[in-house]
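Trying the structure run again after the queue cleared.
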Amino acid sequence: MSARLIGEVAGWLGTAAAEGLTAAERLVLLIVAERANEHSRRMWSHRGDRRDDGTRITLTELIADRAGLTPRGLNDALQRLARRGLELRVQIGTDTRGRPVFARKGHATDYQLPFLPALYELPPRPVDNGSSDAPEHDR
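Done. Tokens:
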């Protein structure tokens, strides 16, 4: 568990860059952050991630279950995030048409928390040329 990444996402969700995200999109970001390695930002699975019958659960199933989403609902949320520049799925290749591939038979989708962009950049600091209308003590 990465408390630092959860804090990063929680802080970012309060910025203008996160305006318009749905509750599902916000929750998916937090779930991936909770399981992500602090340095690689890749989501980990745990040994205890099992179904009632003892078989392993995929990260996709884990996210959908925790977020209370259907597979279709999760896919829609992931696509909306990707359109905003927040691709959480790790691309493993491309298909014959050049589209990204995230999973294939024998390889489930992996997830990685992207770096969260700021919507606005601060303007460059003005160059001080020595001429100012400010009083002498404020310079």
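The longest strand covers residues 93-94. Worth checking whether this holds up in the mutant runs.
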